[in-house]
Amino acid sequence: MKTISLIFFTVITFSVMSQxxxxxxxxxxxxxxxxxxxxxxxxxxxxxxxxxKMNKDGTFKIEGKLDNPDYYVLRLDNGHISLILRDKADVxxxxxxxxxxxxxxxxxxxxxxxxxxxxxxxxxxNTKSDSAMTAIKANPLKKEEIxxxxxxxxxxxxxxxxxxxxxxxxxxxxxxxxGSINMETEFATYESIVKQLGxxxxxxxxxxxxxxxxxxxxxxxxxxxxxxxxxxxPDFKELRTDRKTTMKLSDLRGQVVLLDFWASWCGPCRxxxxxxxxxxxxxxDEGFTVMSVSLDKDKIKWLQAIEKDKLSWPNHVSxxxxxxxxxxxxxxxxxxxxxxxxxxxGTIIATKLRGMELTNELARIFK
Length: 367
Prior knowledge:
Elements: E1 20-29, E2 35-41, E3 46-53, E4 59-66, E5 70-76, E6 79-85, E7 89-96, E8 104-107, H1 110-138, H2 143-167, H3 187-200, H4 205-224, E9 237-239, E10 246-248, E11 256-262, H5 267-283, E12 288-294, H6 299-308, E13 315-317, H7 326-330, E14 338-342, E15 348-351, H8 355-365
Helix pairs in contact: 1-2, 3-4
C-alpha cells in the first residue's frame, strides 16, 4: 500500500523557538526495528531528533526535548506514524508493525488519533486511485467504466473530507486534509482551515510556513481575479419580479449577502435551494440575506420555481435574457449554481460556496 504522511514545508528553519519536553511510549509488535525515533519526514528523507532502543517485546519509551511543537513522525525501520507533539506531550502508541498504515492506536493525543484515522482513509483513496490508473493502462477499453466507478468513489472520499473538517474545528489535525482540498474551487474552506491552524498551533514552524505560503498565493490570486476575496463586489441594477421596479446589489449594503445565480431549469440549483432557504431562515434576523439572479427566459417558470422552492427572500431579479443576461456577464458566470458571499461593506468573502462549505462559512461569520 502506498502510504501518505505529512510532508513538511522545506522553508522551515530549525532555530530554537520554544523547546518542548515530550514523551512517546507504547508497544509496536511484529516489527523488525530495534530502535525507534521521533523524526520529521520531508518527502524524500527523514530528520531524526531523539530516539530509544526497542525492547524485544516491542515496548519502547522516548523522552527528551524538541526544538519546537510541530508535526512529527514516530519512525521505525519499516514505516512511520504521524504525530502532533506539543510541550509536555505524553503520547502512547500501540500498533502492528507489519501494518502501520491500518492498525495503530494513539492515546493521550486526540488530535493525533483523529489525524491518523483520516490518513488511513486518505491512503485507502489513493490506493484505489492508483489501482484504477493501472487498470486503465492495462485495458483502455474499460476507461469509461472505471472512470464512472471512480467518480462515485471520489464523491465518497469528498464526503469523508467534509466530515473530517466539520468534526475537527480548531484542531491541528486539519493540516492533514489540506492536500485533498482544491484551493481554487474551495478557497473559503482552504482559507478557513489555514486560519484555524494558525489559531490553534501558532508555534508550529510548519504552520508558520503554511501561512506564509498561503498569503503569497492569495496575493497572486487576488491580483488576477476580479472576484477574489477582499475585492469590492461589482454593483449592478436589475428588474424585480414585478417587471417594473429595479434594485441594485448595493441596496443591500449593511447585510451579509449571498449573491446566487440560478435558474428554474437548473437541476443542481434547485437541489441546492433547500440549503439556502434553511440558512436564510437561520440567519436572516442576524443580518443575512440572499439576492437571487435568475438566468431564466420564461417569466412564468421563474416565478413558479420561486414559489415552489419557497425562496422567501424579497430580492429576486432577472432581465430574462438567459445566458446573455447582464449581471451574470459582469460576474463571469459560466455555470450555475454560482454564488458570491459578500460582507456588510460590499466586499467579497468567497465564491462558489455551496452546501456544507456555505453552512460552515456562515457559522463562522455569525458565531
